[in-house]
Amino acid sequence: LAGLIENATGNQRISKLLIDWCAGLLAQVDTSQIPNEITSGLSRLFDLPDIQLRIWNGQTNEVSTAETNKKLRQFCEENTAPICGSPSDYPAAASILPDHTASLAIIPLAHGTPPKGIGVLVLGSDNPDRFASDMGTEFLETISSLASAALSRLVYPQTLQIA
Fold this sequence. Notes:
Low-confidence stretches: none
Distance between the termini: 51 Å
Strand content: 15-25%
Radius of gyration: 16 Å
Number of strands: 4
Shape: globular
Helix content: 40-55%
Mean pLDDT: 84
């Protein structure tokens, strides 16, 4: 029972942090700042110093080679759900993180119906257990949905209409 209460408390804390992060995304008026709001917000709220965002239309928070982006894009087209594990298992994603990264989460980003890939968010940690391959990804799926929706304002500005 104590373990269940501890898990529930941890999940409640994470939910609160996600709501705070989402509020920051919604409040961002300058769409060019959305990528920074995504990465800096996640970094701050979840104590993650190593976060990289790649958007397939070229807007990004870091420079990477076209070949790296091509490999990441292909990976995300083949794996549409978040994946966690060791950098050695996912070299394309690991290549955009610092060498000291011991575990990572790859979060494909997509928007629309049917979903069209718009980018990827890669979270890195120096703790090998932070993003274990057997961990649940429900919160990472929520991050994907929220980040994708926020980025759609930047990637597809012509579809926004104000009544």
